[in-house]
Protein: Diguanylate cyclase
Amino acid sequence: MEIVKTAEKRAFQTLVVDFANYNYWANKQLADWLITKPEELMDTEIPSSFSSIRKTILHIKETQQFWLSNILQRQEETEDLDLLELYDSKCGICQVFDSIIDQSGVMASIIENYDDAALLEEVSTVSPWFESIQPRYELIQHCMNHSTYHRGQIITIGRNLGFTDAPMTDFNFYLLQVKG
Structure:
């Protein structure tokens, strides 16, 4: 019976780490695809939750930063490149893509080092919208799911801009093709 419990724990930890690595990989796939498109289209307004590809990517980045600070249980840290600068269409889209890929990689590295106790630890979240105490793994899962949701919106915005060659970024595709 103890062998099953140990295997279950490893499966739990592996799943959380896989989600974080998948998030990094999917954000990179998306950026690698979008970098082949005309830069001026990254700021074209299309009705969606966020009105352009740039704004949607930066929303994902801002939200990942918020959740990372909660996962780590510390105040948000200032980043080297000001987020407002990234919203400015004069800022090269490559910087925007690099910033989200770098941040996603940092998140994956941090999450990879959590053991079961750290993943199950109850952490406090205080925001303008709600307050909660939840296990750390739930915050991680929410953050990864949020990014997936908005990556889908970016694909839809791209379709509206005439992009028909979006990459496959499903979690199962990641598991089969990348983690394999």
Notes: The chain is about 65% helix and 5% strand. The longest helix spans residues 2-34.
